[in-house]
Amino acid sequence: MSIVVSGLTKIYGAQLAVDAITFSVNPGEVLGFLGPNGAGKSTTMKILTGYIPQTAGKASVCGFDVERQSLEARKHLGYLAENNPLYTDLYVKEFLSFVAGLNGVKNKASRVKEMIWLTGLEREQSKKIGALSKGYRQRVGIAQALLHNPEVLILDEPTSGLDPNQLAEVRQMIRDLGKEKTVILSTHIMQEVQAICSRVVIINKGKIVADDAIERLQHKATGETVILVIFKQAADKDKLLKISGVKSVNLSGEKTWKITGQKGIQEAVFEFAVANQLTITSLSEEQQSLEEVFKELTRQV
Length: 301
What we know:
This protein is an alpha/beta fold. The protein has two domains: 3-218, P-loop containing nucleotide triphosphate hydrolases (Rossmann fold); 222-297, Alpha-Beta Plaits, CATH 3.30.70. It has eleven helices and 14 strands. It has helices spanning 41-48, 70-75, 92-102, 108-118, 134-146, 164-177, 190-196, 214-220, 237-241, 265-275, 290-297; strands spanning 3-12, 15-25, 30-34, 56-61, 64-65, 77-80, 152-156, 182-186, 199-204, 207-213, 224-231, 246-252, 256-262, 280-286. Helix 3 crosses helix 4 (108-118) and helix 4 (108-118) packs across helix 5 (134-146). The longest helix has 14 residues, at 164-177.
């Protein structure tokens, strides 16, 4: 495992920010780490990156304990913080060369050149960071996180401030990086998670409320199934409502019936069609959007 978190807890005074959470991330996995503001996301990431100590529990990066072996753990870790702190009075290439030196990067000049190319900073490399747009500053932040070629990347809001073209490029870059590195991506943009991540962990009030592949999470969040059915012949709504396990029936469009019910209602709908001499020309299952799942799991009660 690239990242292992076990019973991780963080208390600030009387506030329990992270409450005994446990999860792990495999090599080559892009994990979406989600939660509302104040849920404990940033605190967890700060513990993993060695910025703050935990109150209890353990966490390791590439087998190194983040508390007892902090320097070794950080050698295997690249981090882009949400506020992306940069030395704005330095030139882009100068800053990356400085960071490469701090990390003991071999062949520093060629590695800096490679990162400038990878993050699309060729035209900006001779500008001062303070003169860059927010989108290009994000690219500099990603470049510095990658300089020492870490096995693990933790990216907090990596596409903040990017225009649509830059957004597509950075998303593709993260997908490509995920083929050979472990990536934890924190963002509030659900479309971003669906475009990049294979799995999500959702934290709420310091506790993990979901940990699964996106598709499975969308299916099981409500415990219900929504199917879209088109019959060749006219169907009777009252009869559809009497099918075992069906909770609601609505006509969506001219011919498509939207049927909500218990898991496995597809079989009951097929049996209904046979019994009533109806031909099903189309049947598909409708998934909840990740945004709907997130809202349901983090709803304040």
